[in-house]
Specification:
The complex is a heterodimer. Chain A is an all-alpha fold. Chain A is built from seven helices and no strands. Chain B is globular. Classes of the chains: A mainly alpha, B mainly alpha. Chains A and B meet through helix 5 and helix 6 of A and helix 8 and helix 9 of B.
Amino acid sequence: MPNLYELANPERFERWARPAIPWLSGATIALLLAGLYYALFNSPADYQQGESVRIMYVHVPAAWMALFCYSTIAISSAVGFIWKHPLADVAAKEAAPIGAAFTFLALFTGSIWGKPMWGAWWAWDARLTSVLILFFLYLGYMAIWRTFDDKARAARLAAILAMVGFVNIPVIKFSVDWWNSLHQPASVFRDGGPSIHASMLPPLFLMAGAYMFFFAAALLQSMRNELMARRIARLEGGEKKTAATLVEQ
Amino acid sequence: MNALKAIIARDLRLAFRAGGGAPQAVAFFAIIAVLFALAVGPDLSLISKIAAPLIWTGALLATQISLDQIYRADREDGSLDVIIGTSDELILTAAAKAIAHWLSTGLPLIIATPVLAVLLNLEREAIVPLLLSLAIGTPALSLIGSFAAALAVALPRASLLISIIVGPLYIPVLIFGAGAAAAGASGDPQYGANLSLLGAATLFAAAFAPIASAAALRSNQD
């Protein structure tokens, strides 16, 4: 495993990332198959929720990943902002759509789960609301990258926003919990969370592992794509410049 | 400190003289309230029930719509570069811009609130908690908003981006502010806790927003 400084060189990153991706993808598939088998066939149905509790195995790890990906963005942003590590900026940028997808998955499956549990597609439950706000944070972060042409400036501004958002996540989470306790005393989730039976833990952690390896594989692949795209843009820009100078001459 | 005062005085003069945006924000605030009331219908008891959250949302939107102006004109005429180049403490300058924005939009909104409250049939005992929550909370809106404005200062059409960025960051202020207004109106014992948390959110923003604004302004220099 090379250290962070060596990975700042895109060439070296490429040499390290390309062979790693198949292994990570393989681990993803193996864990996903095992996790789905446990989740769908080899775990008990809930005595209250029945079979629909199986949505949890897709939903809960997605919610964990939503926060994990945002943490990845914030930490990469800090590394990129402080040490001007060029690949850290690329990692932050490419982690965002993956994290947003996990966040959307958590919201979507939460909504599907909510229909039989609450009788409504959406309840202004504290957790759902916080995850929805996290989704908006992702959108704002990605909007910064999209609106600035100058990649170096976009990287710095996006990094500042990611760090500000990260500092604010606990505040937002607390405020939503507060709001929820103010408006909605009887919630589906009890204080301290629903206690989970031990037999439900293996599929949960297998799925979480699968999501984690998927994130790693997808992140490395998108970083390679981004580096390649930048190289192409540079080459095309160079071609245009030479063409322009030829015209001038 | 002198620079801080000078920037605040200059921004206030610009905001309140012809072409400044300050009166428009109040007008916008009033129009939101009227439009909302018309959409709800002439049911007075329903309107009076939603008056406080409506005024809070209106104040938030009116603040948000005016954020773009904080740095826009300064950047266009080049004075922003001079300010960044000559200020010893860009963080203080950013704080001054946020304070000036609050004085030119937040404060007029609070002054206009009692009139709108009467218009929306808000109960008399609910007016003081509402004003108090606005007074404590709106500075946070200006501070957080000035950061988003600094982030987007180099963009030609920034207001949409600013709104997307600032929305999630405004949520704690809105929750504690509207919560305080509601709790104060109904004599709920959580009134004090809501106000304290709102004050904490404002102080938190006061501590961090100028630092983040200064970093964003530096990164946006050409």
